[in-house]
């Protein structure tokens, strides 16, 4: 069971490989890439404890010179300070422009490692080995890298495509259930904006709230179709000039909720789930989407065990104010991604603050 | 007297405009670019005192919203810490992805501003207004941006092309003589590696050691031909995959000298002048270049008032060791740019340590 997806770009095309046991079989992938001999694996304590040794062994067996750097985990450590620790290791190991960083971890490790690779010697290679569902279907693909500014997430960053994305579904076994559900929010997103087929597969599943309930076939399908969706969009719009904006479905209000609750109350996936519910309501109000499909989306969110209710302590005015400082704002206008039908979405900056208010309020009142 | 040069790139082509009074006439350039309304000018105290007010006025007159950020001057401030101050200003001014940073200053300001632009919101616009000769003919063109790591220059950086480079030769009047000569080192470099014509113009000049001795025609020519050389090379090799390496002529040994003397004894241009003299001798020893042309180069260096002697306190073994940690090292081999004739150079990694030693020693003994 091996899926291989190509992210087609003008100059930096690369493969996403999805199969059990890929971490142990990284050697042949490394040997097929035009990369130099030196590799640094960047990870966090917990993930490295689980998978670090196997990975290092597999890399050594393929005759690469490898060292590793363990960084503290958690969004609050996604800072320039952590990136500087990667720089220091790069210096210590005399990395060259042909050298490679491997990110073994979730989105935080992937984003920081990608940013370090983007900016060390003006750009060295990076390989992503995402270990969370969220990172597998989203963060690891597409070349967005970055760290947080004290006053905003991902404000500092660069586009830097990986040379390879290796996805080993078996590592999800050690992922906490809540993190699994968070990743499922992005999977549902791809269903809504890109793939009717994926959406229907999710609807057909008995339960989606824990990995244990998914057959390995369904999991492989979910990963493959989600990665394919992301790859399709990124291939058509590498630097977020247009189409790629649809990937922000659910993220506009989602980011505002994360920011206003200090990134503690809800995690990213949960915020996106709530954001999708709000955006779905906006789409219905604007006449873009049918009430019935919006409800199908909300049912899927519920089945996955994700929230769809805006936290009651948040003031709708604060949400509107936060939307204005979002980095996706263009000429002062807030852009929303709105579904048109299951499997297709569009971007508009014509949503009035009143409609946003109404939708947010409905999502605060509903349970 | 206006020269316009195009840096032709696949996706980010841009103009270099060279003419007196351009700072006051920036308005029409800004209006012709596809940039948003918000601009931050980044500069240092001295330069901003001289030219800041005129620039800000001209920008406002063209109906852009402009603010500015003054950073401390000097290579030791070319750090992530300074870049963070630009980030903070960007946040305070709600910069959007279409917004623009303008670097008004020498290489330090240009590199930091470029890096901030490369990494804020994963890339916003930057316009370079170089105020030193070195920055005009080199740093401002080509998209190399970066800051120093405590243990090495420019180790942290990104490729990020400007939307425009504006060169106003009149600002050179306030440039210290030593800085002028430092810039002339790069001009001589273009003569040796790219333009026989430029080289001969320099040879024909009576004196080159102070700006005052240059006619405004000669100055315009020097700027135009140097920028054209850089633009030609960058157009053919945006990301330093091959040809662009020839721009490092004189820089291999030059960087080692700067590093070993703590960036205090000699400035960058002086180090490059010494490096060219060493590289010239290596080229002669390897049979690439004629003794006679190597001497013509050294005479031009002397006429410009630049040093060509390796500082006597430096040990040749330390220089060799430092060369190995240079970021241009590939597979452990040190690459040298060597002239073949005036106006043409090539890159080789086949220079033996013995030949480097001999050449360095000759350049230590000569006066």
Percent strand of chain A equals 15-25%
H-E order of chain A? EEHEHEHEHEHEEEHHHHHHHEEH
Total domains of chain A: 2
Structural class of chain A: alpha/beta
Work out the largest interface and the residue count of each chain.
A-B, 36 and 35 residues
Q: What order do the strands of the largest sheet of chain A run in, or round the barrel if closed?
A: 1-2-9-6-5-3-4
Q: Helix content range of the residues of chain A, please?
A: 40-55%
* Rounded radius of gyration of chain A (Å): 20 Å
Binding site for NAD(+) (chains A, B): 73-78, 107-111, 131-132, 144, 153
Subcellular location (chains A, B): Cytoplasm
GO molecular function, one term (chains A, B): nucleotide binding
EC number (chains A, B): 4.2.3.4
What is this structure's SSE topology?
The structure is a homodimer of 367-residue chains.
Chain A: E1 3-7, E2 14-18, H1 26-32, E3 38-44, H2 45-61, E4 65-71, H3 80-92, E5 100-105, H4 107-119, E6 125-130, H5 133-139, E7 144-149, E8 152-159, E9 164-167, H6 177-193, H7 196-204, H8 216-236, H9 251-260, H10 268-285, H11 291-303, H12 316-324, E10 336-341, E11 344-348, H13 353-365
Parallel strand pairs in A: 2-9, 3-4, 3-5, 5-6, 6-9
Antiparallel strand pairs in A: 1-2, 7-8, 10-11
Structure characterization notes:
With 367 residues, chain A is of the alpha/beta class. Chain A has 2 domains: 3-174, 3-Layer(aba) Sandwich (Rossmann fold), CATH 3.40.50; 177-365, Dehydroquinate synthase-like, alpha domain (Up-down Bundle). Helices cover 46% and strands 18% of the residues of chain A. Chain A has 13 helices and 11 strands. In chain A, the strands form 3 sheets. Chain A has a 7-stranded mixed β-sheet, with helices on both faces. In chain A, a hairpin with a 6-residue loop joins β1 (3-7) and β2 (14-18). In chain A, α6 (177-193) runs parallel beside α10. The longest helix of chain A has 21 residues, at 216-236. The mean pLDDT of chain A is 94. The A-B interface holds A 10, 36-37, 80, 84, 87, 91, 94, 96-98, 115, 118-123, 144-146, 149, 151-152, 155-159, 239-240, 325, 327, 329-331 and B 10, 36-37, 80, 84, 87, 91, 94, 96-98, 118-123, 144-146, 149, 151-152, 155-159, 239-240, 325, 327, 329-331. Chains A, B: Its EC number is 4.2.3.4. Chains A, B: Zn(2+) binds at residues 186, 251, 268.
